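Justification of computing resources. Each target in the renewal requires a structure prediction run like the one illustrated here; the chain below, 165 residues long, is used simply to show the kind of job we budget for.
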Amino acid sequence: MKLGEKIRYLREVEGALRGLDRAMTQQEVITAMKEDLKKPLSQSYLSQIESGARPHLTNSSRMLLAKFFKVHPGYLVDDPEGYSTELISDFSALEDKLDLWLVSGAERFRNDSEICHSLIALAKHPDSRRCLVLLGLILENLGLLDRLFDVLNSGSKSPQTKESL
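Resulting structure tokens:
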């Protein structure tokens, strides 16, 4: 995946996380960066990165974007030709791989805002692996899923039934 594609994808994810139900615009990202991180980056610079006109980031820009999107700075580079995520073996790299897989899944379900939001929230959690293991344990305990869903969803404005899932 090229750097520009990654930035566009992160804008999509960040928009969903912020409840926009769409990708954040480049200008919204720039404005949010100024507000959240108190550091500037120009919209034209971001546009050049996304279009491929500027194929490399400065280290300070890479760190700023990584901090804003909450990704590892190493993610913000073009993947080398023939790159395969299947070769990852380090535990922290596996966690990153899991998070990227979850974000990819969120993208595929972007028309289902609840699933998209849930997958993104899971990917952004500092220990997404543990969250998935917990979900597995919940599903193995008959009746626990329904009870938890009822309790946690009772404060929701639009409660769902099992059938609507």
